[in-house]
Q: What sequence folds into this?
């Protein structure tokens, strides 16, 4: 059946498909900006389109264009596509590799067309080089990624892998009786190649756009969860994720400790150095805190200069040691503003599920009371939450005293 397909019609259809995919990628790249791979993919698709257009019109174009230049452009197109995948992943782009592969392709085809005319050799060489470039693309895409980006990676990688395997099969078939001895029009191998190229172009372009879409969606999701200044969890996402952690810990009867932290005399820093310096000090504070955290700990900005830390599987004693390390580490390394050290201390309140249960709001209230106690007792210290039976009037008195001292900048 493949032999009955009109190669000229397939060539026209392939040209229209590849041109459409190129325009689609170009429009997407225009709006996406630089550095994300889409521009590489648009340029690669355009080079591949030109190469295919020249190759399917061998009857009307000189062999130096329809064979040598055409295959060089196709090699360069796949190579630029490979660079785009690396750019999308934030990796280096060794531009010499695609250029070298295209030069090797063109010089080899020139040799076996104008020096030693061998169609079988040209078919095998072109297939091997194009297969190698396709497999390079597949190798870049079959990597561990978080969902849903992994689905788009592996879908696109599967298409590149199938292209590579198909071209390897084409190399093997070029050594059998299925391959023609010369470049003729109605040949099943040529028809299958054009059909495969057409389908691959559609799926590859779709895969690249899907990769871009998923990454944008994930970035927007992260922005909705994160504080824009410090990169920590915002208040809403902190509540949601901490609730999940507490629920699972409650089922397993594992301890969870909540630490509430507040920078001491932060208003003085803003008044003396300005709010930009205050923002930089907050980022420095978060950076110092992160040095003492594990991968499964949660850090969120509760408001202003207040932060909340969730420590799964740590009891009061272990969490208190973490809190003390954070306090000492922050005091020992001030932030510098134009060679002027900006000293910063921090007060911390610690509450554990062992005494206060697995409800987030209850733990937060207990840690907040301990934080106010640390403020009232002079700041720059770690305080443990009082027993749940402590009189509410005593807790309120601590809050009022701390607030009064804060307003007086004591």
A:
């Amino acid at each position: 059946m493949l032999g009955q397909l009109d190669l000229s019609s397939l060539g026209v259809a392939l040209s229209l498909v590849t041109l459409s995919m190129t325009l689609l990628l170009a429009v997407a790249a225009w709006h996406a900006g630089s550095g994300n791979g889409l521009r590489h993919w648009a340029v690669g698709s355009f080079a591949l389109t030109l190469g295919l257009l020249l190759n399917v019109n061998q009857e009307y174009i000189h062999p130096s264009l329809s064979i040598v230049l055409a295959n060089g452009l196709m090699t360069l197109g796949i190579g630029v596509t490979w660079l785009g995948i690396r750019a999308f992943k934030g990796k280096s782009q060794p531009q010499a590799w695609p250029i070298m592969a295209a030069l090797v392709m063109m010089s080899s085809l020139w040799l076996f067309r104008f020096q030693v005319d061998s169609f079988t050799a040209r078919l095998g060489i072109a297939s091997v080089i194009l297969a190698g470039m396709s497999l390079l693309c597949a190798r870049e895409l079959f990597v561990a990624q978080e969902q849903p980006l992994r689905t788009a990676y592996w879908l696109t990688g599967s298409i590149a892998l199938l292209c590579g395997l198909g071209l390897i099969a084409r190399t093997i078939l070029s050594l059998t009786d299925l391959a023609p001895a010369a470049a003729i029009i109605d040949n099943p191998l040529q028809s299958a190649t054009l059909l495969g190229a057409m389908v691959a172009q559609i799926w590859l372009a779709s895969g690249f756009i899907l990769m871009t879409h998923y990454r944008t969606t994930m970035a927007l999701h992260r922005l909705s969860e994160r504080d824009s200044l410090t990169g920590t969890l915002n208040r809403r996402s902190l509540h949601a994720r901490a609730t999940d952690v507490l629920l699972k810990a409650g089922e397993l009867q594992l301890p969870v400790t909540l630490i509430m932290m507040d920078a001491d005399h932060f208003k003085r820093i803003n008044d003396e150095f300005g709010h930009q310096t205050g923002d930089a000090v907050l980022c420095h504070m978060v950076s110092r805190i992160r040095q003492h955290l594990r991968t499964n700990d949660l850090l969120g900005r509760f408001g202003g200069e207040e932060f909340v830390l969730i420590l799964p599987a740590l009891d009061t004693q272990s969490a208190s040691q973490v809190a003390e390390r954070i306090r000492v580490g922050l005091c020992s390394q001030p932030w510098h503003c134009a060679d002027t050290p900006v000293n910063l201390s921090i007060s911390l309140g610690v509450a554990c599920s062992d005494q206060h249960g697995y409800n987030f709001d209850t733990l937060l209230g207990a840690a907040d009371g301990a934080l106010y106690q640390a403020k009232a007792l002079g700041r720059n210290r770690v305080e443990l939450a009082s027993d749940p039976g402590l009189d509410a009037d005593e807790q309120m008195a601590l809050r009022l005293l701390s607030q009064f001292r804060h307003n007086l900048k004591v």
Notes: Strands lie at 256-263, 298-303, 306-312, 335-337, 340-342, 346-352, 382-384. The longest strand covers residues 256-263. The chain is about 65% helix and 10% strand.
